[in-house]
Amino acid sequence: MIGPFEANGSAHTTKKVSVVFVLGGPGSGKGTQCANIVEHFGYTHLSAGDLLRAEIKSGSENGTMIQNMIKEGKIVPSEVTIKLLQRAIEENGNDKFLIDGFPRNEENRAAFEAVTGIEPEFVLFFDCSEEEMERRLLCRNQGREDDNIETIRKRFKVYMESSLPVIEYYNAKGKVKKIDAARPVGEVFEAVKAVFTPPSDKVKAASWSFKWND
Ligand SMILES: Nc1ncnc2c1ncn2[C@@H]1O[C@H](COP(=O)(O)OP(=O)(O)OP(=O)(O)O)[C@@H](O)[C@H]1O
Ligand SMILES: Nc1ccn([C@H]2C[C@H](O)[C@@H](COP(=O)(O)O)O2)c(=O)n1
Ligand SMILES: [Mg+2]
What we know:
The structure is a single chain. The protein has helices at about 30-40, 50-55, 65-70, 80-90, 105-115, 130-140, 150-170, 185-195, 200-214, and strands spanning about 20-25, 45, 95-100, 120-125, 175-180. By secondary structure, it is of the alpha/beta class. The protein has a single domain (about 15-200), classed as P-loop containing nucleotide triphosphate hydrolases (Rossmann fold), CATH 3.40.50. Strands 2-3-1-4-5 form a five-stranded parallel beta sheet, sandwiched between helices. α1 packs across α8 (about 185-195) and α4 (about 80-90) packs across α5 (about 105-115). The radius of gyration is 18 Å and the shape is globular. The protein starts with 17 loop residues before the first strand and ends with a helix. The structure holds adenosine-5'-triphosphate (ATP), the ligand Nc1ccn([C@H]2C[C@H](O)[C@@H](COP(=O)(O)O)O2)c(=O)n1 and magnesium ion (MG). Magnesium ion (MG) binds next to α1. Pfam families: ADK. It catalyses: UMP + ATP = UDP + ADP; dCMP + ATP = dCDP + ADP; CMP + ATP = CDP + ADP. Belongs to the adenylate kinase family. UMP-CMP kinase subfamily.
């Protein structure tokens, strides 16, 4: 467990949570793999991008600003995104969260740490070539306003310039679990499972297969 987490900024509400940041380029498969992790390991999936898109739909006062930034592939000010993440964590009964697509830049990272006091347990990093990510985004077909070639290129630039340094920051702290995400979905998930399976369970699984083959 990691904490303390003061979800509403008051000293009275303290929820201890365990957080895994899920990072990787646009289209690397973060959302796809998070759905599998939720099913197998009981985490709650919070996608920063999904929360921002829901905020646009809700007609909030920040909606137009968020929409314009997403269309330009830019990163929304941390204050806005952190509030949405805090609210989602606080309203959820679970204590294990996958935070997908956040922190996206140094400002996101430092502000989240300062406001919540949360250090991620580890960072799951989906490593994939730009060519493969571009192919996937152009086929995604979910009606996202930012899945057009012009915005995709801007998102890649922001990823290289602002998001990779955050991954490097956590790598220097020994917190990054890197996954080769260029393979088919099932193969990627096998690698992901190995990261989430406690070492004691891996020993049990190995001895069962030994007995089976006996
Ligand atoms: N390993 C894979 N092989 C082929 N296609 C994949 C793989 N993983 C995901 N996809 C497909 O690629 C597209 C992008 O995947 P997904 O939405 O999970 O990426 P993402 O990292 O969440 O992207 P974004 O940062 O834009 O939200 C989807 O259409 C998904 O079905
Ligand atoms: N921390 C974040 C996460 C996302 N956004 C904005 C900018 C992204 O291009 C867009 C889509 O995110 P995705 O669904 O691809 O993870 O949402 C942001 O500003 N800050
Ligand atoms: Mg996604």
